[in-house]
Specification:
Order of helices and strands: HHHHH
Number of strands: 0
Bound molecules: heme C
Largest sheet: none
Number of helices: 5
Shape: elongated
């Protein structure tokens, strides 16, 4: 193999690395986008804090002392949702009246109890409950 061949090979390797990177971005980025950019740790704090989400007043969530049972167990609920349903899960938290006009669940987004960022965080936390 002469020097020119080696240079050629290296040139090709660079090209292929580029192709792999671009493919990776096209294939994986939408999944990341769907996973959202909420902060699950913040979300956990929000759902369990009385003055913020206080979801535990009505819903079972793990590692909480005497959670409520007015609403469905959110661990069970989340097993039914995939990442593709992220919009619906977000809508439930933003304003559950879209799904049930008579719900007793507070419209956290519409009533500005939580900011859109806090709702993203809550949804990110909810997805950590999927087994
Ligand atoms: C006052 C009680 C109450 C509070 C507080 C509450 N919820 Fe709910 N939630 C309910 C009830 C009741 C339902 C059942 C659906 C309905 O009302 O039609 C529900 C439904 C849901 C659903 C949809 C369940 C399904 O079957 O798909 C999600 C997700 C949810 N709640 C998340 C939350 C989160 C997150 C919070 C806190 C930010 C919260 N809820 C706070 C009462 C509550």
């Amino acid at each position: 193999m002469n020097v020119m061949d080696r240079v050629d090979l290296r040139g090709n390797a660079g090209l292929w690395a580029g192709v792999v990177v671009v493919f990776f971005m096209i294939a994986v980025m939408p999944v990341w986008a769907h996973a959202g950019n909420g902060n699950a740790k913040q979300g956990e704090k929000i759902v369990k804090t009385r003055k913020l989400g206080n979801c535990v007043a009505c819903h079972y969530l793990p590692n909480v002392e005497s959670p409520g049972d007015i609403g469905p167990n959110l661990v069970d609920v989340m097993q039914e949702y995939t990442l593709a349903d992220r919009k619906d899960v977000t809508q439930w938290v933003r304003d559950a009246r879209k799904f049930n006009p008579h719900t007793i669940m507070p419209p956290f987004g519409t009533n500005k109890i939580l900011t859109p960022k806090q709702i993203d965080d809550v949804v990110a936390y909810l997805y950590t409950l999927k087994k």
